Here is the input.
Amino acid sequence: GETAEIPSTIHDMWNDRIAALLVDLPEEAEVALELGATLGLEVNQKEWLEACELRGFTPSPRITEGLLKRHLAESSSDSTRWRHTHGMLRESLLKRAKESGRFGHHHLVCAQMLERRTNHRGVAERRGTHLVSAKAYEEALPSLLLAASQRKASGDLRRALTLLEVHAKAAIRA
Here is the structure.
């Protein structure tokens, strides 16, 4: 009889689970999943939908349904957020984005989406981080500086200093 092939790496195992999920989903599902991973381990549903729309499509509800059904994500009680059930799933999705050349563009899209949410707490830090990941160093500088200032004002001096270090490295690369 046939024997199941054992994945050679943990990434291969997660890739197999991702591929099984994608079989029954629309073509843009892979990009939608990668955008979710780009947004973080926990994903705000509105932000994810907006990021997908900025990429030019509205994600099918079957994508999140598939994640939940296969226990690859868990939904918040109010269904406004979902969370990857394992960090390695997220890492595998990000690796797929890198291998396909979409990683930087995903981060730019997330930064663009966050630009509209400037009055939300923590947005400057998230936006700056996405821009650095996209290698848009010069554009990241104001967000990183604002984020450091906000962290300092809230008493989180360690994080403020880290953000200033990221700012300095981005300034050198800009």
Q: What stands out?
A: The first strand starts at residue 42 and ends at 44. Residues 107 and 174 are 17 Å apart (CA to CA). The mean pLDDT is 93. Strands lie at 42-44, 73-75, 81-84.
